[in-house]
Amino acid sequence: MSSSSMDLLFTLLLLASSVALAKSSPSVPAIFTFGDSIFDAGNNHFNKNCTAQADFPPYGSSFFHRPTGRFTNGRTVADFIAQFLGLPLQKPYMELQIQISNGTLERLPSNGVNFASAGSGLLLDTNKVMGVTPIQIQLQQFQTLVEQNQIEKSIIKESLFLFESGSNDIFNYFLPFDTPTLSPDEYVNAMLTQVNSTIDQIYKLGARRIALFSLGPVGCVPARALLPNAPTDKCFGKMNVMAKTFNRRLEDIVNIIPIKYPGAIAVFGAVYGITHRFQTFPARYGFSDVSNACCGDGTLGGLMQCGKEGYKICNNSNEFLFWDFYHPTERTYHLMSKALWNGNKNQIRPFNLMALATNITL
User: Which one, of 219, 223, 220, 218, lies nearest residue 303 by Cα?
Assistant: First the structure.
């Protein structure tokens, strides 16, 4: 082969690799996050009317080395996804509003906003007495920002929208204080009605890349020890049946999004299956305990919130699936996030978040 031919071949290979790199480089400028404590980056902390808090030690101790309002010892799934995309962590909406109102911030950051509120649900009445921000109000907050042109519409179209809610609704269905007026199926139907409404609303506001995450095995959280009818030697089957029913129908909703909403693409994160695999093969994932809270007290560590007077804490949170009575450890979130980012169709479908973020599917 002549020298000129070699030069041409090298140039073509260089161009091909550049095109491939361009196709695989994330093109997401921002993340907008809605949901509950799985995502909350501190909104409840900045809401002084809210009693659902994690703004005291040892929350945040493993990564931030201080409490941030996140209900774990470090980063959440939303944080890890932002880092995988090379974006700074999204700040809580409530913090940003305070900074704008007092003049310490001129405009919203370009990397997105976190609207999630721990303890919130899909149903308006879920933990209402605690002053949480329900999904409906989170959506109103986002809509107001869009209508006030505080978020560029061109950015919205390219952004990633993360959505996870429903665990608190289902856990509360089994609280002993009130007899449910709806059957489990009717209750799940009411939850899914709100999911459909949420998708419709964010699509009208410009969302096109949407990730909906399933509920985890809610019936396995250590806080089930607080419920008089829940077993503590195994997961609460009735609660998990409701979660799985919700998840199956949530995936049906995800599958019709590209048909119902032209130009939109959506993925279903199978968080239940990912977590169940951690529970089934704990040693494979480096866990020594997948039942008890690392931080808490009482049966399963589930009778007291981490950080409250008299709490106990484990020696190595990395070996525990659960950080406190409801929430996973940062390490669990990290493993979960990696599965959602570049996992196979058993973990996230029809494709993973990396594909959603790199325009491979658009």
Answer: 223
